[in-house]
Structures are given as structure tokens and as C-alpha cells.
Amino acid sequence: MEAEPEFRPDLYRGTAHFYDEFRVPYPATLLDDLCRRANATGEGRLLDLACGTGQLAFGLASRFAEVCAVDQEPEAVELARTNARRRGVGNVRWVVGRAEDIEADRDFDLVVVGNAFHRLQRRRVAEAVRRGLTPGGHFALVWSRSPWDGDREWQRVLARAMRHWTDRADAADRVPTDLDRHLAHEPHAVVLTAAGFAVVGEHDFPTPHEWTIEQLIGFLYSTSVLSKPALGAHAPAFEKDLRDRLSQIAPDDVLRESIDFHYTLARVL
Ligand SMILES: C[S@@+](CC[C@H](N)C(=O)[O-])C[C@H]1O[C@@H](n2cnc3c(N)ncnc32)[C@H](O)[C@@H]1O
pTM of this prediction? Predict the structure, then answer.
């Protein structure tokens, strides 16, 4: 069995504020649907792995008695903690750590990973999650499609600009070269099945959304490839270039799309 590709651990350094402000929240319809299918009654325990600044943990905290949210990026966890205090969300334990290192023993009713499973050592994490779930517990991989990943004209322009600035900033190595091949060879469902899960559903939530150019720039600063540390001294020229390219297509500063939100639900066999 081939080794899983590894990402550098510091790729989200410098992104937390942008992540928190510019990522589009998971729609309530998705969260409600997930809670219904996973039998979240308000009494159980939730584990959010690779939680970032808490996009899933905050969205789901009211449906669980206790939540544990883990991310390896200390800046993300610190911002989540601050926001939890500010919002009066007191049932989440925020932990700096690697998803691969969790040690749970039938502690959780639901484990979620939002937009991050491909970044993890998936086999090891899936095994650990299975051990950490209560009998009949659920594991959900939650995703949203990125704004440049579509066939609208502005999305193609955005994708071209990203390729240009990724090259200029020499940031291409922030994604392992063999990632796509590896994921095609061993899809998430195969990893889940091998770890003792049954995939019980795939659920789509297309959601109309309008961006401004400044919001898209903020979104790109929240990514691992075009974060401010990745761009370094190129950041001002990158912003100007994006404004120039996108304002030619959208002089009214409205860029529309339908964001594909999606989750895969698996249950312990
Ligand atoms: C795209 S963000 C997803 C954040 C959030 N879960 C969401 O749904 O938007 C990816 C996150 O995965 C975290 N991450 C990547 N590898 C990790 C690992 N091995 N253990 C813990 N966190 C990890 C990064 O620090 C980053 O915060």
C-alpha cells in the first residue's frame, strides 16, 4: 500500500482572521440534515477534527452537550477560543493538536471533518475515529466547492490568476504533487470502508451566493496556497491584479455562483 501524501503543518499560518471572515458558513439546511441523520439529540458528544476557526464546531455546538474541536494551527484555535468567549459558547473544548494523534475510546457520537480530510493521514485518522465513536456513531466528511472551481467566466479568470500568482510566489509545493493521483487511486469512501465504516449517504446542498471582489481576495488569503505568508512581498501586486482582472468582468462588483456544499455520512459497522 503506498504512503499517503503529506502536507506541511504550517500552511494555514497567517490565515485565521481571513478564514473566519471570508469563508461562507455551512448552510443551516446541511447542518440540520446532518444532525437529523446522525441522531443528534442535544445530549451527545461531537468531535470536530481539523476544525480551523470552528466553522462546524460553532454551527453544531448547540446540538451536543459537549464538543471537542482540534486543529494543528495554534492561531486558528486561539481565534476560535476568543470567538467562543465573545459569543458565550461554553461547551466546546478547543485543542491544538494533530487529528492523527487523537486518542478517544467510544467517546463521541459524531465526528466531523470539514474541508480537510484530504489533508490528513486518512487511514490513520479513520481508524482512530472508528475507535473513538460510540456503537452506531457517525463520521461525516463535509465539503464546499471553492469559488474558482466552476465554469462561470469570473471563475475561470480567478483560476487563471491563481495559477499565475502561485507560480510567481513559488507556492505550488504547498500542495503535494501526487495528491490528485493518490485521491483518485484511493478515494475517501475506500479509506472509510477499509477502516470499518459503511458509507450510508451522500448529501448535496447547492447554495446561491454573491461575492464582492474584496471578499474573493479575502477568501484567497484564507487558503493555504495564496495566504499572505505564501505570497510574501507579492501580496500588494496580487491584490491589484485581481481587482483589475475581476472588475473588467464585474464592473458592478457582484460575482454570482452556486456553492456546492456536500457531506458524506458513514456509520460504524
Ligand atoms: C481548509 S481548513 C478547514 C477548516 C474547517 N474545518 C472548515 O470546515 O472550514 C483546513 C484545516 O485543517 C487543519 N489541518 C490540516 N492538517 C491537519 C492535521 N493533520 N491535524 C489537525 N489539523 C489539520 C489546518 O490547520 C486548517 O485549519
Answer: 0.97
